[in-house]
Amino acid sequence: MIVASLAFYLFAIVGVISALNVIFQRNPVHCVLWLILTFFNAAGLFVLLGAEFVAMILVVVYVGAVAVLFLFVVMMLDINVTMMREGFMKYLPVGALIGIILFVELAAVYGGWVMSPDAQGLRVVPAPLDMPNTEAIGAVLYTDYVYLFQGAGLVLLVAMIGAIVLTHRKRTGVRKQKIADQVARKASETLSVVKVETGKGIS
Known about the structure:
By secondary structure, the protein is mostly helical. The chain folds into three domains: 1-85, NADH-ubiquinone/plastoquinone oxidoreductase chain 6, subunit NuoJ (Four Helix Bundle (Hemerythrin (Met), subunit A), Up-down Bundle); 87-118; 127-169. It is 73% helix and 0% strand. The chain has helices spanning 2-24, 28-48, 52-77, 81-86, 88-115, 119-123, 133-141, 146-167, 179-183, 187-190. Helix 1 packs antiparallel against helix 2. The longest helix has 28 residues, at 88-115. It is elongated and about 100 Å long.
């Protein structure tokens, strides 16, 4: 019991510190690396709770795919941090307003969740005792919440398409391969036959 408590405090403290570094780090690449560390510590907390499937999904999907995708996108976008800082004060009122609205909405959701008389029953999904954790999650996810699961997949698909569009935008000073132009190119446009007389070649 003491080992579990020490492990919980270790994962929780490191997770909070890494999450704060995701926000306050100035280098976007460093932010993504701190985000990966946050995911690992959150996975450790899920293991302590007995939700090994959620921990595995967090490591495999978020760390192995989403966070690495974020890292590649940030590196390919070549974000100018200096230009972003110049417009910070200009966008601060709008950002503060959006932050306040989100905080009020989250507080309303949390308050309704805590004060609801059925909240305690909704926190625990009924599952047979002899069913493993992974099988129980699959039985609930693909029956009662199948439409929400498909909606989450659609959101990830849109995010993937958006990342591809951002990386393939036209930028000045960057040479890009144009496959359609190469396929449509004719031999007369690329090859020129020069007749050189004997003994009068180019020296």
